[in-house]
Give the backbone structure.
Amino acid sequence: MAVKKYNEGSITIEIDEDKCNADGECVNVCPTNVFEIVDGKSKAIRIADCIECCACVDACPTKAIKHHSC
Ligand code: SF4
């Protein structure tokens, strides 16, 4: 299983790239623009900007995103 783990300070986001279908819901809902679709998968490339709102976890249609605080 290809789970990509992102960590910055106290924040951890995991994206299951087997589940990600790159529909971009996380890109659309994240208020601080943490995500970017790269090579057909969502990447939490600006995790340092995360404000822990949990919108990405709730919005993902395939439940590919886990957030330590959500
Ligand atoms: S928890 Fe909120 S701020 Fe953090 S990555 Fe998800 S949508 Fe963006």
In short: The helical segments are 25-29, 55-59. DSSP finds two helices and five strands in the chain. Residues 29-32, 34, 50-56, 67 surround iron/sulfur cluster (CB under 6 Å).
